[in-house]
Specification:
The complex is a heterodimer of chains A (343) and B (308). Chain A has 343 residues and is an all-alpha fold. Chain A is built from 14 helices and no strands. The longest helix of chain A has 28 residues. The termini of chain B are far apart. The chains are: A mainly alpha (343), B mainly alpha (308). Chains A and B meet through helix 5, helix 6, helix 11 and helix 13 of A and helix 4, helix 10, helix 12 and helix 13 of B.
């Protein structure tokens, strides 16, 4: 029954979007067609679906491990930015000298950057009991300012007409495209690999088991001698590394350079993806595809119906609300209790 | 360092702290009742947009503030129904509320980006506002600033000196015992969450009508989260919320002035200061586990369902 709630939530979101489009004075059926069907009418559209699902799923896979261990890393957006900065920095300085090793080194640097950024909340939580929620979130803003600083200063492209962006990376160090005529790249199969590893980790390894026990029954975990400290570190390192990988895959993927806006909030949307995917790797991949479609739909209605693309964020938020509410009706049975008995 | 410069810094600090005071005092009440609402940022953004759009549409800022309070309370009600009646996880629901508020305000606010608005005016008190230094320091703020101080006294008084405040704290410390003694646990929590929604609405409205009189997508820039951090920093005590808010306001204003002076430190680095200060302050407060254990409401973040 655990899969029922996301389906109910998606159906409820669809029904609400019907009403919203009608309220905005658009023919709702036509609008739904433009939002959900039209983006997938072409090979290019499917490529975009996989392209945008990749960072969402990568971030969400890492976050989900943490959430199931009661570690609330909500700063994936910042870890993604740091991954982009570190990977992009390696690409800028050494990309031309590393030859065939360039891409793996860049991706590893991105993961290391994201993990290092997540190490701050991990250290502060385990050493000083500081809430990882607030620290990881504050670091999102700091990471974005750091990126702005670099792009307005030392990393700015001297031939870029003063735009805050770095020079374009060499074609050879970009992630290779999967097929001609679309933009999905090697990052998508990498993400599927990460999903498989994450499943093995959480379902088959003792470390994953310890994390789940720590999340669902902290008292039992303490009694069994499972270290909370280790869980916090593991959750944040994995989450940060995955988000960093997502960030670096964007800059050596579709973007091809460092710029101020790397992500339209993938790190935050990934929180929704993790929950809608029920914190399970397979579910997360599917949920990421759905969320990716919401991004594409937003762009599609902006072009086709002159509606703001921000409708995406509205639908994403709604989806999570419906999911949380649906969980109750899936998990419990409603029963009428007469007043007399209740009293 | 002339006097006018110092006066400008102090008044700037007070103004920058005002939205934090509103948001943090509201969250403090919700948390003392045992409800952790991480949706402050979302409620602030929706409040900011509502106040701005109603203010532009009707020309009346008072109506704008009223509307902001109403919409933010609606969002808080949604949060309350989910977490209190439907027993959802408070952390996840709060995050959902923030993401929803971000999306909703970005979507509905597209038309209002770049419009001008007549910001909140300073109150002019005959006689007092003319005074040389005390005038600008004490008597030339807008009504919302004085309101924030009044709110502090009201919250402090109700929380610590009245029966209703005692009930609220009991519900936050031990809902089961409060329930056994006949206290309406869920009703108290509903009221506390709605109060938090209302003050978040005012905080947001202050952003878009006074601090920076305009509407920009995501304009709260983490202030809702800083307000959440302030409550921890204040160890759930109203007076410390007030002092903490002024501290943060001071950091914000000092870094703005430092940018203006051109100290050779890049503006991006200076802009990191309020966020970095939040982290540092959290570390200082949380360093000793006893501080949190002794002060945090014991039932914070835990669902409670009265057995019938």
């Amino acid at each position: 029954m655990r899969v029922a709630a996301p389906l109910i939530a998606a159906a409820a979101m669809l029904a609400t979007s019907f009403l919203i489009f009608a309220f905005l004075g658009k023919d709702p059926l036509n609008a739904l067609d433009v939002f959900f069907i039209e983006p997938l009418n072409s090979r290019y559209g499917w490529g975009e679906l996989f392209l945008k699902a990749t960072p969402l799923a990568l971030c969400a896979l890492g976050l989900a491990l943490g959430f199931s261990a009661n570690v609330w890393n909500i700063g994936a957006e910042g870890q993604l930015t740091l991954g982009a900065i570190c990977g992009g920095g390696v690409a800028l300085y050494w990309g031309d000298y590393l030859g065939p090793l360039a891409l793996p080194v860049i991706l590893l640097a991105g993961m290391a950057g994201g993990a290092a950024w997540a190490a701050i909340p991990a250290y502060l939580r385990t050493r000083f009991n500081t809430s990882e929620i607030l620290v990881s979130l504050m670091l999102v803003y700091i990471a974005q300012l750091l990126l702005n600083y670099l792009l307005h200063g030392i990393w700015r492209d001297p031939e870029g007409f003063n735009y805050p962006q770095s020079r374009a990376f060499d074609e050879r160090i970009l992630l290779p495209l999967l097929f001609d005529g679309q933009r999905a790249n090697l990052a998508f199969p990498i993400m599927l690999g990460v999903a498989a590893i994450s499943w093995v980790f959480s379902a088959r390894l003792f470390a994953g088991f310890r994390m789940r026990v720590g999340g669902q029954a902290p008292a039992a975990a303490a009694y069994a001698g499972f270290s909370e400290r280790r869980n916090v570190w593991l959750a944040l390192m994995i989450g940060g590394g995955a988000a960093g990988l997502a960030g670096v895959c964007e800059v050596v993927g579709p973007i091809g350079r460092l710029q101020v806006d790397i992500s339209p909030g993938y790190g935050f949307a990934a929180i929704i993806v993790a929950f809608v995917g029920r914190l399970h790797p397979a579910g997360i991949v599917l949920a990421a595809l759905l969320m990716s479609l919401l991004y594409l739909g937003g762009e599609s209605v902006q072009l086709g119906l002159q509606l703001p693309a921000a409708v995406t964020g509205l639908f994403q938020g709604m989806l999570l609300f419906y999911l949380l509410a649906a969980d109750l009706f899936v998990g419990f049975r409603l029963r009428r209790v007469s007043r007399a008995r209740a009293a | 360092m002339n006097v006018e410069f110092l006066v400008a810094i102090v008044t700037g600090t007070v103004v920058a702290a005002t939205p934090l005071i509103y948001a943090a005092l509201g969250e403090l009440i919700a948390e003392r009742a045992g409800v952790l609402n991480l949706g402050v940022e979302g409620m602030m953004l929706v409040g900011a947009l509502t106040a701005f759009s109603v203010g532009v549409g009707t020309g009346s800022l008072a109506l704008g503030y009223l509307a902001a309070v109403c919409t933010s309370m609606l969002l808080a009600l949604l949060f309350a129904i989910l977490t209190l009646s439907l027993q959802t996880n408070q952390v996840a629901t709060g995050l959902a509320l923030t993401l929803f508020g971000l999306g909703l305000s970005a979507f509905a606010g597209r038309k209002f980006t770049g419009l001008p608005i007549q910001g909140l005016r300073a109150m002019w008190i005959p006689g007092l506002s003319h005074l040389p230094i005390a005038g600008p320091l004490l008597f030339r703020f807008d009504a919302a600033v004085y309101g924030s101080i009044l709110l502090y006294f009201a919250v402090d008084h109700v929380l610590n000196r009245t029966r209703a405040g005692l009930q609220l704290r009991a519900v936050g410390e031990s809902p089961a015992i409060a329930h056994a003694l006949g206290q309406p646990v869920l009703l108290t929590r509903y009221a506390a969450v709605l109060f938090g929604g209302a003050t978040s609405g005012i905080a947001g409205a202050y952003l878009s009508t006074a601090l920076t009189p305009m509407w920009v997508e995501g304009m709260s820039a983490g202030r809702g989260w800083i307000a959440l951090a302030l409550v921890v920093f204040a160890t759930w005590k109203p007076l410390r919320v007030l002092l903490g808010a002024y501290l943060f306001g001071g950091v914000t204003i000092l870094q703005l002035h430092a940018q203006g002076l051109g100290l050779g430190v890049p503006s991006e680095i200076l802009s990191m200061l309020p966020y970095a200060a939040t982290i540092v302050v959290l570390v200082i407060i949380c360093r000793d586990p006893k501080t949190i254990l002794l002060n945090q409401p014991a039932a914070l973040g835990k669902s409670f369902h009265p057995d019938v």
